[in-house]
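README: folding subset

This subset contains proteins for which both the sequence and a predicted structure token string are available. Records are stored as plain text. Below is the entry for Apoptogenic protein 1, mitochondrial (175 residues), shown exactly as it appears on disk.
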Amino acid sequence: MALTTPCNCLHQLHRTSFLFKRIVSSSSRAPQAVFIEKTLEEPIIVVREEYNVDLIGPPDTLSNLRPIIRGILKNETVLQRKYRNTADATQKWNQEFWQKHNTNFLREKEVYIKKHTSESKPHLNADEMSEFYRSFLNNYWQTHVAYNFEWYGKNFNLLMLSLRVYMENLQRKIL
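--- output ---
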């Protein structure tokens, strides 16, 4: 890890501030989210409470999923809290599944490569690796099907909760 000098910190702060301003002013991105650039070693993010944004981090090295820190509304209703907590629980479940799955994949791939290589043949070509990929997918087929059905259920639940939150907000505006 590189030493952090005052000049380096100021550069990172300025860069992060620039990224934040660019992202917030960009109409092509969702106004509710702030994306943290992956190249920053230690991003410094200052977000005012009234912005109420979700922070989205760089991809996790094992799961390849981006962590999300959801903003909490100042006057959050019970239903909004339920939606946020359910979304966080779904994210955690998804993160754990893909960490475990990708760890298994990398471990089994390493074993396969060691088993099928030698000093005279140190590398496997794409066709030889395709046998491993096919075998891995066949072995985990039921796991993937179960994951997909559970994932669909969780997403449908989030969709229904978001619809209820939308209706609640609409009702508050009308009344």
